[in-house]
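Quick one: FAD-dependent oxidoreductase from Actinomadura napierensis, structure tokens please.
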Amino acid sequence: MSSSSGRVPLAPGFANGGVSHWYRGTGRPEPGPRLPGPRAADVCVVGAGYTGLWTAYYLKRARPDLRVVVLEREFAGFGASGRNGGWVLGEIAGSRERYAARHGRFAAVALQHAMFDAVDEVVRVAADEGIDADLVKSGVLHVARNPAQRARLAAMVAEARDWGWTEEDLVPLPAAERDERLRVAGATGAAWSPHCARVQPAKLVQGLAAAVRGLGVDVHERTPVVRINPRRGAVPAAAVTPYGTVTADYVLRATEGFTAGVGGHHRDWLPMNSSMIVTTPLPAAVWDAIGWRRRELFGDLAHYYMYAQRTADDRIAFGGRGRPYRYGSRVDDGGRTQPATVAALWSVLAAMFPAAAEHGRVAHAWSGVLGVPRDWCSTVVVDHAAGLGYAGGYTGHGVATSNLAGRTLRDLVLREDTELTALPWVDRRVRRWEPEPLRWLGVHAMYALYRAADARESATSSARTSPLARLADAITGH
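--- reply ---
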């Protein structure tokens, strides 16, 4: 493979798409049985990713007698839940300032602490259910690589302090400790937070699906939902499929980046594309040069940011934005990634880790979509009158956030007033995305400006964030 970004060394057996690398070790699941015909349930969940499965799990744990049905178009974990970077990250999926503006500062802080707790809850349930998902709670390293990024890193720490984060939540690292943990070429600063765990995404979602089935939940795969109907008088809410209709007291939509494909929801959330590559297993000499012994998650402070993990079998899984959005909210279901995107990701990985570039090859590349609301803030909603609910819009922070969403949907459906139902993302509703071509133009302009801003910041010694990045934020309300 070659491109303008340079030649990419591909491993024998290199794969592009096929959902993700995470299924190469476990094997791509064979979809289970379709919905056999009309069904009546207490709760019908649309989507068998993390959000849908966590919701079903907690509902059945709380009320074993509930009839819970999950409908999935492909197989459990086909979407972002089986393709993500494996960050169980305890940060708010949205803007704490926006949540605070509507509900007050105390509510936003409560949401942040609920997210911290969600990381431990994922780890706890995996242990209790015997789910071996390569979970390691090693925290996350934020690394700056030029003066502007270093200034943003300092501002991030200062803002966190202002919102009540202590040094136990986020701490700047002196250069010696930074390099002892992870040696990134060109690093100018770093901070570490304990509120993150590494996970093998497919193992987690498949283990969760097995746990849900073990509790008596009916999971019907290869069953696309074409329409969701609200309750009308004595007629219950319903999820309509080609194989029958499921009626229920509540129908809960958990479709995240695939929401645009559900009838009537085309402009609710924008399906943003993210891409990943993974290297071949790297030899001990490379890890001696890099460090990374504690297996922290790792990201940078660029506008066009990257994210990475050291996998359980000693590869580097490395992600970032490729082709960020396809016209008309179309979704590349197979996860195939453009060669130029693979080359761009390899170029960044090689610049950060020269030793890995010297000894490693790209074994797999894939892409997936995440859901982005118009205000970039995630939400959980249950409308009791209509019998409908939904959760999502995680903007790339869904592994831990989906767990909190599942527990919150449980409490809302059961009409229990709890600390979770009082959180400021509950019942948050925002306007829809603009129609095409404005949607496509806005997203692509945003990322073109981010790329240009990163290039300018890397080429100068200025500590000021490029005005181009601020313009990009203004265009899309990021």
